[in-house]
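Cross-posting from the chemistry board since nobody answered there.

I work mostly on the small-molecule side, so proteins are not my area. We synthesized pyridoxal-5'-phosphate and want a rough idea of how it might sit in this target. Sequence and SMILES are below. Is it possible to get a predicted 3D structure of the two together?
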Amino acid sequence: MQEKDASLYGFQPRFQHFATQAIHVGQEPEQWTSHAVVPPISLSTTFKQEAPGHHSGFEYSRSGNPTRNCLEKAVAALDGAKYSTNRYFRQVAAEFGLKISFVDCSKTKLLEAALTPETKLVWIETPTNPNLKMIDIEACAHTVHKHGDIILVVDNTFMSAYFQRPLALGADICMYSATKYMNGHSDVVMGLVSLNSESLHDRLRFLQNSLGAVPSPVDCYLCNRGLKTLQVRMEKHFENGMAVARFLESNPRVEKVIYPGLPSHPQHELAKRQCTGCPGMITFYIKGTLQHAETFLKNLKLFTLAESLGGYESLAELPAIMTHASVPKSDRDALGISDTLIRLSVGLEDKKDILEDLDQALKAAHPPNAGHN
Ligand SMILES: Cc1ncc(COP(=O)(O)O)c(C=O)c1O
């Protein structure tokens, strides 16, 4: 069974003990006087001290909170990291007016050419949103670290900790929009960061405490709960995603499908080398024009037309008009984000129902009497 799973579609073997760690690390009942099996939502903003400076490990909820602690320990274990802390990084960076350049990091030479003596940090997203381009994390880490003390950050939102471990591939920081797969239930907006460097960890902790950018205990509780089913959810997203990708690829109403799990994906070999599987994110070009894309989206019954991704529910969206409308048209054109590009977040519903919904919506966009079967 183990071997069959490991070789599924030719991807890397799954990370060992993942589900056990997701369920148990940081969740020890002994840490609570009640021995609660499920971590309590610790709403208190402050914690009693036995004497000035003598505390239980918690002083004030901004600098440390018991519920947040459970989540941080679980995420660190799942990322194979020493530390996990919540995201404020991007927002902070943007505020300081830092010089930023955008590079196609799937071409390591372009990345190398863009590095300057002032480069402090390289941020990559793999696979990219919405074109699902894969970036070779190991190659980027090699290039970046060769040039000195530059921090490599990988946005691991699309793959989740279950399918990709950037830190093991040489990244310095692994970050998530936990709003997506990590929480998985579309009811929390949160960021996560995992890392191994003690000095970087101390610096981020200092900033977290100084800036006060901490998530609520309720959100931490929900995200921590979401992690307990990350493995089973991701396996099902993979199964449903692969079925949808294959269905779309063989559909005459579809121009092109982009899914790293398909052999037709330009970086399929890299995906198999770097990841243990693929999530439910699929991008495809419907044949025709904007009108066909809109008719397709309007006719979906099971998929909801909405932004975001990675929840248990299937979502569909039109990046050119929705999530990526703020990207200048010239950039959208260069990236291939056209009016017929549709992004799906395939959920956990029954495979047959998902495929039937896509089939009927495609037929509504391109009726059978218009030349398609
Ligand atoms: C890959 C990726 N990273 C980061 C974000 C930002 O996440 P959040 O909305 O949780 O701040 C998104 C949101 O869509 C995303 O898709």
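Reply from a structural biologist on the board:
Welcome over. Reading the output above for you: Residues 125, 129, 155, 157-158, 177, 179, 189, 191 surround pyridoxal-5'-phosphate (CB under 6 Å). The beta strands are 83-86, 121-125, 151-155, 173-177, 191-195, 254-258, 281-286, 304-305, 315-317, 341-345. Happy to explain the token format if needed.
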